[in-house]
């Protein structure tokens, strides 16, 4: 890591906004791939597939502050056979078969993709594979003139709100709300668990923050 990157990371650690909890490598259960951590506290991934979630907590509000550093040296396809380059949040992760994804997809089309994976009674990849995906939303980022391909830092925030038996999801990109939608209670209510992240075919440096408050996260860029 170059000196300027190290210094910027240190500043970010010192200016973490109140109300948000930073996720360290020791907080994570890595289920696929490899996750590293810099001395200044940023998480990094470089492989074709990385999956992890926090070991504890059922937070309904999370932010990924990340910088895309380019394609991974090796590439891998999804279990469905498709190719994507992406980073994103795993919300309400009951297990690998039951969770909500909010993904910043860089390729083949740059967009935010919201998906629920629902496989009642199943808990392992062997059980569910690529089954049970329910598409919720696709939000093209060109409409907001945002791209992760310029080596700049970005924020992806997702929060789930419950009002009685109704559930909604709000997605922010760089502190701007770009989508709000309803989630099917039959799909989302039975699943709950820790926040996590998922990456495919990219090198990323990032932080994962969780909060139960609705305040904005204002830390500096990686």
Question: What is the radius of gyration computed over CA atoms, rounded to a whole number of angstroms?
Answer: 16 Å
Range of helix content? under 10%
**What is the count of helical runs?**
3
CATH superfamily: Exo-inulinase, domain 1
| Largest sheet report | 8 strands, antiparallel
Compute the number of structural domains.
Answer: 1
By CATH reckoning, the class would read Mainly Beta
Give the topology string: H per helix, E per strand: HEEEEEEEEEHEEEEHEE
CATH level-3 fold name: Jelly Rolls
- Distance from N terminus to C terminus (CA atoms, Å) equals 12 Å
* Structural class label: mainly beta
How much is the average pLDDT?
89
Please provide the count of β strands: 15
CATH architecture: Sandwich
Structure characterization notes:
The chain is mainly β. The protein has one domain: Sandwich (Jelly Rolls). The chain contains 3 helices and 15 strands. The strands form 2 sheets. Strands 1, 3, 4, 6, 11, 12, 13 and 15 form an 8-stranded antiparallel sheet that branches. A hairpin with a 2-residue loop joins strand 12 and strand 13 (176-183). The protein is globular and about 40 Å long. It starts with a helix and ends in an 11-residue tail after the last strand.
List the helices and strands and how they pair.
Layout: H1 3-14, E1 21-22, E2 28-32, E3 36-37, E4 43-45, E5 49-54, E6 61-71, E7 85-95, E8 98-107, E9 111-117, H2 125-128, E10 133-140, E11 153-163, E12 166-173, E13 176-183, H3 185-188, E14 196-200, E15 202-211
Antiparallel strand pairs: 1-15, 2-5, 3-4, 4-15, 5-14, 6-11, 6-15, 7-8, 7-14, 8-9, 9-10, 11-12, 12-13
């Amino acid at each position: 890591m170059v000196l300027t990157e190290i210094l910027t990371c240190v500043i970010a650690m010192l200016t973490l906004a109140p109300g948000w909890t930073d996720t360290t490598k020791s907080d994570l259960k890595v289920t696929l791939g490899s996750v590293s951590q810099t001395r200044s506290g940023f998480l990094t991934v470089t492989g074709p597939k990385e999956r992890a979630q926090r070991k504890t907590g059922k937070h309904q509000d999370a932010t990924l502050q990340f910088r895309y550093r380019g394609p991974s040296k090796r590439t891998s396809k999804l279990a469905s056979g498709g190719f994507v380059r992406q980073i994103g949040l795993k919300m309400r992760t009951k297990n690998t078969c039951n969770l909500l994804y909010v993904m910043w997809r860089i390729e083949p089309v740059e967009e935010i993709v919201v998906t629920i994976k629902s496989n009642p009674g199943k808990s392992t990849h062997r059980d569910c594979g690529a089954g049970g995906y329910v598409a919720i939303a696709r939000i093209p980022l060109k409409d907001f003139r945002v791209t992760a391909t310029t080596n700049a830092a970005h924020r992806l925030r997702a929060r789930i709100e419950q009002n009685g038996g109704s559930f909604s999801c709000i997605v922010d990109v760089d502190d701007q709300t770009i989508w709000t939608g309803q989630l099917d209670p039959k799909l989302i209510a039975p699943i709950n668990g820790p926040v996590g992240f998922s990456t495919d075919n990219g090198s990323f440096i990032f932080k994962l923050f969780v909060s139960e408050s609705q305040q904005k996260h204002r830390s500096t860029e990686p």
